[in-house]
């Protein structure tokens, strides 16, 4: 049995590069002055604006992913090929044979297994639709490396610039 839930480690793995980049940009004026590049000295306000512009989409995406899977626990039983989703309201169990489609939304870099250039590239999500019509959103904060042994004919990979779950908020 594999058990998945949102943990601090999963969140840190998504955000660590963002924190490093923002720290470097924010302290760029001090770094450039310390190494003697006085002609390229950037104003602190400009650095702060660049940090805010770069961190805002990541923050929004991270919060959305957290809201979608907050309090959800996924248990995958590989021997019986079944999944159990446990939330505060209910527990849902189903076999992999009951899955109608799995839509996977990944950035181009992540889908093609290339170097991740954008700060939001590690974020991705799955929409699992059952034969009964029920749909579930599983984000990378909950299941960082989810691969289910399902026929490729039932799996659809969608490549996008930023894997923002627009359809979740249209419900």
Describe, in plain words, how this protein is organized in 3D.
The radius of gyration is 20 Å and the shape is elongated. The mean pLDDT is 86. The protein starts with a strand and ends with a helix. It is built from five helices and eight strands. It has a four-stranded antiparallel β-sheet, with no helix packed on it. Strands 7-6-5-8 form a four-stranded mixed β-sheet. It is of the alpha+beta class.
Helix content: 25-40%
- Main β-sheet description: 4 strands, antiparallel
Beta strand count = 8
Q: Which descriptor suits the 3D outline?
A: elongated
Radius of gyration using CA atoms only: 20 Å
Q: What percent strand?
A: 25-35%
Biggest sheet strand order reads 1-2-3-4
Counting helices, strands and paired strands, the structural category is alpha+beta
| Termini gap | 31 Å
Report low-confidence residues grouped into runs of 5 or more.
none
Residue-averaged pLDDT, rounded? 86
SSE ordering: EHHHEEEEHEEEH
Number of helices: 5
Detail the topology: elements first, then pairings.
Blueprint: E1 2-5, H1 8-26, H2 28-34, H3 44-69, E2 73-77, E3 82-86, E4 91-95, E5 99-107, H4 108-111, E6 125-130, E7 135-139, E8 155-160, H5 166-170
Parallel strand pairs: 5-8
Antiparallel strand pairs: 1-2, 2-3, 3-4, 5-6, 6-7
């Amino acid at each position: 049995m594999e058990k998945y839930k949102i943990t601090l480690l999963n969140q840190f793995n998504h955000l660590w590069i963002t924190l490093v980049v923002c720290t470097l940009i924010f302290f760029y004026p001090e770094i450039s002055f310390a190494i003697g590049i006085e002609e390229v000295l950037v104003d602190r306000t400009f650095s702060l604006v660049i940090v805010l512009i770069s961190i805002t989409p990541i923050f929004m995406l991270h919060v959305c992913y957290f809201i979608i899977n907050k309090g959800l626990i996924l248990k995958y039983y590989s021997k019986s090929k079944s999944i159990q989703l446990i939330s505060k309201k209910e527990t849902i169990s189903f076999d992999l044979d009951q899955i109608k489609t799995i839509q996977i939304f990944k950035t181009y870099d992540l889908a093609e297994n290339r170097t991740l250039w954008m700060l939001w590239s590690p974020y991705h999500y799955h929409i699992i639709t059952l034969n009964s019509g029920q749909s579930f959103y599983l984000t990378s904060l909950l299941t960082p490396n989810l691969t289910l042994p399902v026929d490729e004919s039932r799996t659809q990979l969608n490549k996008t610039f930023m894997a923002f779950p627009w359809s979740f908020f249209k419900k």
